Amino acid sequence: MPDAGPDRVGVQIKRLAHGEGLALPSYATSGAAGMDVLSAEDVTITPGMRYPVETGFALAIPQGYEIQVRPRSGLALKHGITLPNTPGTIDSDYRGELKILLINHGDADFPIARGDRIAQLVLAPVTLAVWGEVGELDDTARGSGGFGSTGGHAGL
Ligand SMILES: O=c1ccn([C@H]2C[C@H](O)[C@@H](COP(=O)(O)OP(=O)(O)OP(=O)(O)O)O2)c(=O)[nH]1
What keywords would UniProt list here (predicted)? Predict the structure, then answer.
């Protein structure tokens, strides 16, 4: 593994046969939170279609972290291309191919070429919970109110 540096976490990545020649996922700018990830295949996503796009890579994320797969806002705005499972969860113990599940909410075919940037990957820490089962929960001002209980969407 290369030296991760103070603000980086090393993540092992394995290139699969059909990933030959593709660039690794990468940050487009120095302040980007997500790494753009490329398609490893040519495919057309027709309106309403869901499709797991191959990336050509498999990962070993360090325990205590996950990768979240998020849509690219430009594709969402211009073409209605997003992820039905956003954010997709890549578990640290997953060793299969990273796939990007896309859906076309637009009204036109969306052709993807191998090498196109289709989504972004955000490395994030995971905090595991341990349940503490109790008979009563404490009282709060909200109580059991939810789902718009504080009012509609107009400004307060
Ligand atoms: O967009 C995604 C989402 C998931 N995965 C892979 C990595 C992840 O670790 C695994 C399982 O994902 P998830 O837990 O979301 O799937 P599940 O439907 O709960 O199935 P499973 O029973 O396999 O956990 O599938 C992807 O490649 N892309």
Answer: Hydrolase, Magnesium, Metal-binding, Nucleotide metabolism
Sign of the CA dihedral 29, 30, 33, 35? positive
The pLDDT value recorded for residue 5 is 73
Q: 89 CA to middle of ligand 1, Å?
A: 6
112 lines ligand 1 (CB under 6 A): no
Give CA–CA dist 100/37, Å, rounded.
9
pTM of the predicted model as reported, rounded to 2 decimal places: 0.94
Q: Where are the domains of the chain?
A: 12-125
Q: Is the ipTM of this complex over 0.85?
A: yes
Probe ligand 1: pick from 89, 100, 102, max atoms within 8 Å of CB? 89
